[in-house]
Each structure stands twice: as structure tokens, then as C-alpha cells.
Write a structure and sequence with these properties.
Distance between the termini: 41 Å
Low-confidence stretches: none
Structural class: alpha/beta
Largest sheet: 8 strands, parallel, barrel
């Protein structure tokens, strides 16, 4: 039987592109910056992050070619191995609508060194898609995928489709479907999956995509988070997970409050906000380093609104590093 990703905090890593100052920079499709990608990945591993989601929503997967996908995944795997992180968990995202394309991306991801696939729900026919249709789509992929897959439910980028708890229960019984990421704020749905006695949570772990509800999700049986803020302040999110799972709830509540404030940047500004913060806080990548159709960062004026919150999280990050 396929193995599930281990519990903990994962980072949906941004995809780094070469700087505007680079000789091979193109405003239409800037080349991959594999050196910065590696630097960020190793930094996260050193800070206790359990694994990486490469080419997820934060990784601008829809703007990356299949050739670039393989190049990026293979490079990250090789460099992590060279740095001593053997078999470090890598989950490869997919964001296609078709079964054939999705399976091919999963095959390529396995060849490049990923251990799991995170498969975004199809949403083009959102107004007419049924739960049976969603179930059969995932089963068809899982039957053919060389990688164990996770179900990725992110209504905000999927025309607000719904995947019901009963559909998750059905999918959880498939031997090659080994968990899910829920990127929405419906704690009831998290609970109905993570605490469902008919779902083996060890075989089908639930990860929230929102660090601002990590404490709550862990208390109802969730396994962890795949969280964008952890790309900037990894030790803070790891400590929140550790405090909660070890029963130190006073500390966990205190950290959760700080995390909630920081997550407002992620929610409000999305990928451009995450990339701007990674650049300003960690010195990695351009502040406006997205690929079209995303354009620009959030700018000095908007960043100033976040300075106090980012400084507080930065101080906590440094404290946890000592």
C-alpha cells in the first residue's frame, strides 16, 4: 500500500525566476532561477520544515511548462540530496483539467524525484460538475499514477466548486490516494474528514492550507499544514505545530495569534505578497518576481502596513533559531 506524507509543516514553495538584472531576463517568461530555488529549499529544510510542495498554487504551476517542471523538480531533489537531506519529502503539484495531462505530469514528477502528487480538482465545468464526476476523475488518475496522490481542494482558484465530505470518504478508500490539502476556512469540513471514524487518518491525513487555523485543525485530527507563511517564517510555523502536538497549548495559542496576523498578508496579497516578503525578509528573489499573468509586487506603501507584523514574526523566528 502507498505511504502517506508524514505529519508536520510543509511549504508550498514559490518558483523563483531570474532577476530583472539578469542577461537572460524576459518580461514575458523569465527563466527559472534554480540557484535561488535551491538556496530557499535548503534553508527550509534546515529550519525543520517537514517537506516541500513544489509547483503548487504558490509555485505558479499554471505558468510553468512541462519541461521546466521536470527541470525544477530534478534540480531541487539533487541539491537536497547533495546537502545531506536524503529522501526529503517532495510533493509535486498538478493543476491541469484533463486526466491524460495530469497523469503525464505525475509520471514526469516521479522521474524527477518527487514522492507524491498534489492534484488540484478540475473546475472548468464548475456549474455542472457532480460529486460522482469528481470522484471518478480522481479515481481514474489514481489508478494510473505512478505516484500516490493527494486531493487538493482550493475553491478560490477552482470556481468555488465543492468536494463533499462523503466524496473524500470514498476517495480515502483508494489505495493510491493518500491524503488531502484543504485550502479553505471551513473547519467543519476539516473535522468531518480528519475525525471521520470511517477514514483512517494515518493513511489519509488532512493538511490545512491555512496556517491561521493550524492549531484548530490539529485538535480535530489534522496532520499539519501546507502553508505559505512558512516560506518566510518556517521556524514559527514548525514551533506552532510542535507546541500543539505536544500539548503546550498556552504557547501554541500565543504563536497562533501572531501567525494569524501574518497570514493576512498571504490571504490579502497572494503569491505577489509571499514573493515580496521572501525577498524582503530572506533576501531571496526579486520583490516583484512573478511570471505573467501575475505582475508586480505589493510596493513600499503597502509593505509599510505590514512592517510591524513582519518584524514581530521575524523576532520570534530569530528567537527560535537561537
Amino acid at each position: 500500500m502507498a505511504i502517506s506524507p508524514p505529519p508536520g509543516v510543509y511549504v508550498p514553495v514559490p518558483t523563483f525566476f531570474v532577476s530583472r538584472k539578469a542577461s537572460n531576463y524576459s518580461p514575458e517568461a523569465a527563466a527559472l532561477d534554480l540557484e535561488t530555488q535551491t538556496k530557499h529549499a535548503i534553508h527550509l529544510a534546515k529550519c525543520g520544515i517537514r517537506g516541500l510542495v513544489v509547483l503548487g498554487s504558490t509555485g505558479e504551476a499554471i505558468a510553468i511548462t512541462n519541461k521546466e517542471r521536470s527541470e525544477l523538480l530534478r534540480h531541487v531533489r539533487q541539491q537536497l540530496e547533495s546537502a545531506g537531506y536524503k529522501d526529503y519529502p517532495i510533493i509535486a503539484g498538478t493543476a491541469t483539467q484533463g486526466i491524460e495531462d495530469t497523469v503525464q505530469q505525475l509520471k514526469d514528477a516521479k522521474d524527477a524525484g518527487a514522492q507524491w502528487g498534489l492534484v488540484l480538482a478540475p473546475s472548468y465545468f464548475a456549474t455542472t460538475i457532480t460529486q460522482d464526476g469528481l470522484n471518478d476523475w480522481y479515481v481514474a488518475i489514481a489508478d494510473r499514477s505512478p505516484l500516490p496522490i493527494m486531493v487538493y481542494h482550493y475553491p478560490a482558484v477552482c470556481n468555488n466548486i465543492t468536494i463533499r465530505a462523503s466524496t473524500f470518504q470514498s476517495l480515502a478508500s483508494h489505495p493510491n490516494i493518500v491524503g488531502c490539502k484543504l485550502s479553505h476556512g471551513d473547519l467543519s469540513m476539516h473535522t468531518q474528514i480528519a475525525s471521520n471514524p470511517r477514514i483512517d487518518s494515518n493513511k489519509f491525513p488532512v493538511f490545512t492550507g491555512l496556517g491561521q487555523q493550524l492549531l484548530a485543525v490539529l485538535t480535530v485530527g489534522g496532520a499539519g499544514a501546507i502553508d505559505g507563511l512558512a516560506a518566510i517564517f518556517p521556524r514559527v510555523l514548525v514551533r506552532l505545530w510542535e507546541s500543539t502536538t505536544h500539548g503546550n497549548l498556552d504557547e501554541a495559542r500565543s504563536i497562533q495569534e501572531a501567525v494569524c496576523k501574518g497570514e493576512e498578508l498571504v490571504v490579502g496579497c497572494g503569491v505577489p505578497g509571499i514573493k515580496e516578503a521572501v525577498s524582503r525578509v530572506l533576501g531571496m528573489g526579486d520583490r516583484d518576481g512573478t511570471r505573467l499573468p501575475l505582475k508586480g509586487g505589493i510596493g513600499n506603501a503597502d509593505w509599510a502596513k505590514w512592517t510591524e507584523i513582519m518584524d514581530d514574526l521575524g523576532s520570534l523566528e530569530q528567537e527560535l533559531a537561537s
